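Most newcomers find our protein records easier to grasp once they have seen one. To make this concrete, we reproduce a full record directly below:

===
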Amino acid sequence: MKINSYHVTELIRENKLYSEYQPLLNSSNDCIYGYEALMRSTPRISPLTILRHARKSGVLYELDTASMKNAIREYPNSYLRQHYLFINVLPSTLVHADFEKFINRLFECYPHVKNRIVFELNEDWNEEFIWSQEIFLRRIEFLRSLGLRIAFDDLSITRASIKKMDTISPDFVKLDHTRSKGLSQSQEKQQLVSYLLQYTNNDMKLVLEGIETEDDLHTAKNIGVPLLQGYHISKPKRLI
């Protein structure tokens, strides 16, 4: 299906968005640590395509907050008691003028989720300039004051990224599939992951996404990556 700005607005207005969830595996005991909520739509359209058109049409904040509400509303309480819920949020959403009101209203409706939520911040190049803004840092402290945790999503291993880690001290750091694909066959990738592990500890857990083979899973465990995610562990799915 071809999509344009009108279709994105329709998806939001008519609530044609929903969530699928992909587990994060604790490598030390093979238990599920948490689930990441991933935006989906009816009809099925690439989330990246939806985000791109939402940005063009000026409804990115509305799309992001609608997706956040769905993620919490559709996550079963029985899961919440045992597993953290990871929710993607754009930096531009974080600094929006209405964001604090939105969060306060959200937790008035769902007060039981507060200490079980992890907000994943993506290093999208479109929003790189936001990371250095004072309001961005204040909003992160606002979320933490409510008992929420912070993750860096799709982190690039650069000096700028390491500086962000030093400044914000996220609770989780997530590396994308480019660092895990073929991990078992690549000494370079293994060294990169090991290098980043030096900057993390129990207060800043590393997550390796994109685990798609048993060999890569085994290698990641041997390196000492605490949390793992990918199709080999489980594809995203709706939860009942």
